[in-house]
Design brief:
With 165 residues, the chain is mainly beta. The chain has a single domain, classed as Immunoglobulin-like (Sandwich), CATH 2.60.40. It has 2 helices and 10 strands, in the order αβαβββββββββ. The chain has a 5-stranded antiparallel β-sheet with strand order 1-2-8-5-6. The longest helix is centred in the N-terminal third of the chain and has 16 residues. The radius of gyration is 33 Å and the shape is elongated. The chain starts with a helix and ends with a strand.
């Protein structure tokens, strides 16, 4: 009986004597950088021909000529500026056609902002993916050279900059 009692005590002590529980925790940090991504898609209508007196007299609007898609985890500001004060002619055209004959607006807007070499604000928005309302949009371009410039093919670059306001 002593042996049986000793065996039962030994078995119980090994089952219950070593069944301890422990708890613990960990902590950590995560650093998220401010990130912005700008995708610009230009339609074929950005290269246009202005012909006829009505196009020269009252200008031409290129509707939805460029699409912007913005991903940002901070508030954003889209700005633009011309990279030079004047268009470059391909031939012997005028070298004084100013960049200010170009006006830009968000599609559906009522007012054009005219290009210069100074940075101009185009649109602001909220953080989010391109599926967030307002983070994907089109712009319209207004070209109004008037009658002061000789017929030629003129080029100019517009620089778009995505930044934090």
């Amino acid at each position: 009986m002593k042996k049986l009692l000793l065996v039962v005590i030994v078995i119980l002590s090994t089952q219950y004597g070593f069944s301890q529980s422990f708890t613990g925790s960990t902590s950590g940090t995560i650093t998220i950088s401010s990130l912005q991504n700008l995708s610009v898609t230009t339609g074929s209508s950005i290269a246009t021909t202005i012909s006829g007196t009505s196009g020269l007299a009252s200008g031409t609007i290129l509707t939805n000529c460029t699409t912007f898609a913005i991903k940002s985890n901070i508030l954003w500001l889209l700005e633009f500026n011309a990279t030079s004060s004047y268009f470059t002619p391909s031939g012997s055209g005028s070298t004084t056609m100013p960049c200010s004959i170009i006006g830009l607006r968000v599609n559906g807007g009522s007012t054009f902002t005219y290009a210069s070499t100074s940075v101009q604000s185009l649109k602001t928005g909220n953080r989010g993916n391109t599926s967030l309302s307002g983070n994907t949009f089109n712009i319209d371009m207004y070209l109004n050279p008037g009658f002061s410039y000789k017929g030629d093919v003129y080029t100019i670059s517009i620089l778009y900059t995505l930044t934090h306001p």
